[in-house]
Design a protein that fits this description.
Helix content: 25-40%
Order of helices and strands: EEEEHEHEHE
Shape: globular
Radius of gyration: 14 Å
Strand order of the largest sheet: 1-2-3-5-4-6-7
Largest sheet: 7 strands, mixed
Structural class: alpha/beta
Number of strands: 7
Protein name: Serine aminopeptidase S33 domain-containing protein
Pfam families: Hydrolase_4
Distance between the termini: 32 Å
Number of helices: 3
Length: 152
């Protein structure tokens, strides 16, 4: 659930799009989004790790819609200091904290009853490639695979 249990949802081209804010372990508000197939359960989960200064309305949105149309559940979050998340714009005080934020959020999604048996794939673009590699390194047996697009 979001900060106050509220999730904003709408449909984009046959895909259910939802967004909400979560609090990280440091009390900062982080924007999260998900793209889900409109009429059936996702066949696998894809967790997007965006590049520096990117956000859910740019790279993630197009990728999320395309992948959800193919039957995947796609989840993203805007890192501290990026997009609509709290923090000084463009400033990452601790890359370790950024990776921990992603790990905690993506693990919580994966451990929901309806997701436990689904494949979990990381997809990292640019700086997000480094995030994806560090997430995989943090929990190597948890992830089923990773796709790196122009990784940093």
């Amino acid at each position: 659930m979001g900060l106050n249990g509220m999730t904003k949802a709408r449909e984009i081209g046959g895909v259910r799009y939802e967004e909400e804010y979560i609090l990280n372990s440091r009390g900062m508000k982080l924007f999260t989004c998900r793209f889900l197939p409109a009429n059936h359960e996702p066949k696998a989960l894809i967790f997007l790790c965006h590049g520096y200064a990117a956000e859910c309305n740019t790279t993630i949105k197009g990728m999320g819609v395309r992948l959800a149309k193919q039957g995947f559940g796609v989840y993203g979050m805007e890192y501290e200091g990026h997009g609509r998340s709290s923090g000084l714009p463009g400033y990452i005080p601790s890359f370790d904290d950024l990776v921990t934020d992603c790990s905690l959020h993506y693990t919580a999604i994966s451990e929901k009853k309806e997701n436990k048996k689904k494949l979990k794939i990381l997809l990292g673009e640019s700086m997000g490639g480094a995030v994806a590699l560090l997430l995989h390194r943090k929990k190597p047996t948890f992830w089923d695979g990773a796709v790196l697009v122009a990784p940093m």
